[in-house]
Design goal:
The chain has 337 residues and is mainly beta. The protein has helices at residues 2-19, 50-64, 115-124, 129-132, and strands at residues 32-36, 41-44, 48-49, 75-78, 87-91, 93-94, 101-102, 105-107, 110-113, 133-136, 139-140, 145-154, 163-174, 177-188, 196-201, 203-204, 213-219, 234-245, 255-256, 262-264, 271-275, 283-290, 295-302, 305-309, 317-323, 329-336.
């Protein structure tokens, strides 16, 4: 009898351990939710696209205000997969003369619309999905630290914009507040090589904090060029997987240091410039937060200079972090608008 009870208890412990193992739900995009009316929008199970929010929430708001809006579909179930039967295909689409061309955003977390950011973005005509949404849910992490996320991405050579893949790790930065404690980003430039496996390493800024949830996202285009976003810029995404550590062991702390960047003007009005005059061609990562700890901007750039457009930013205090290419050194600061 004792052996039977021990065997049963062992099974229970094992099943509980398995239940506590984080994993991307439907990372192969084989399961899809039935298309929804009236626009026949479809999405992978446990994943969400911007076209649902834009068509079902933003569109009615703009039309009630007398602002032109054209419904569009941005997320597709595609057979141009890496493996299996399907992958996710996202495309930049034109939503009318007010919003113009809007990149598609695909995330494994529900997207919550930031109305204030939408109103500011509408006036500029370049609506960046980074600015429009906050996220809820995502993948439960059970306190485990994400080391990296991998995905297979196909950015066709016909693209004119560079796609983006990103990761946001959330934890309790205060007992009553959840915020970003780690992030990672990689770019997906146009390529004739078909699917490429990309690895998104996660840089942690808070090492004593357990990870609650993780958000993975893919954007059909990053920052807009001088002519805005290009129509029909496309990204195919398949086989998304994550890797983690049992705790903080194996994760290299980020040293806070001066990377030599100057920021001006500060206070700022329409833009702010991050500039480093070393003459070295290196990759840096810029992360900007608002006073609530929400990520407002997340981007990689080269050659030590980045001009950030602030037309869509509300007046107030903002914090920034600049990381070197390996993510081992960080410069921090703040600016006001």
């Amino acid at each position: 009898m004792k052996r039977i009870l021990f065997f049963i208890s062992s099974l229970l412990v094992a099943s509980m351990a398995m239940a506590q193992t984080p994993a991307i739900t439907n990372g192969t995009f084989e399961s899809w939710v039935a298309p929804s009316l009236p626009y026949q929008l479809e999405r992978p199970t446990a994943w969400y696209g911007t076209d649902e929010v834009l068509n079902n929430q933003v569109g009615p708001l703009l039309l009630l205000s007398g602002v032109p809006f054209t419904p569009q579909k941005q997320l597709y179930k595609s057979a141009d997969k890496y493996e299996g039967d399907y992958c996710a295909k996202i495309m930049t689409k034109h939503f009318g003369d007010s919003l113009k061309n809007v990149p598609a955003l695909l995330t494994n977390a529900k997207q919550n619309l930031n109305i204030a950011a939408l109103m500011q973005a509408q006036s500029s005509g370049n609506v960046n999905p980074y600015d429009l949404f906050t996220y809820t849910n995502g993948t439960p992490m059970y306190g485990k630290k994400i080391d990296s996320v991998t995905a297979y991405i196909n950015a066709p050579a016909t693209n004119q914009d560079t796609g983006v893949a990103f990761v946001l790790a959330y934890g309790h930065i205060r007992p009553d507040s959840i915020g970003v404690i780690g992030q990672g980003i990689v770019l997906a430039p146009p390529s004739a090589n078909g699917y490429t496996k990309v690895k998104i390493p996660v840089i942690y800024t808070s090492f004593g904090t357990a990870t609650d949830t993780m958000v993975v996202g893919f954007v059909s285009a990053g920052d807009a060029g001088p002519n805005g976003y290009f129509l029909n810029n496309t990204l195919f995404v398949d086989k998304v997987e994550l890797f983690w550590s049992a705790g903080t062991a194996g994760i290299n702390p980020v040293k806070t240091s001066n990377l030599g960047f100057k920021i001006y003007p500060n206070p700022a009005k329409d833009y702010v410039v991050f500039e480093q005059k070393t003459g070295l061609s290196q990759v840096y990562t810029l992360v900007v937060y608002n006073a609530l700890g929400q990520v407002m901007h997340h981007e990689q750039f080269r050659d030590g200079q980045k001009r950030l457009d602030l037309n869509r930013y509300a007046d107030g205090l903002y914090y920034y972090e600049l990381y070197n290419a390996k993510g081992t050194a960080r410069q921090t600061g703040k600016f006001t608008k």
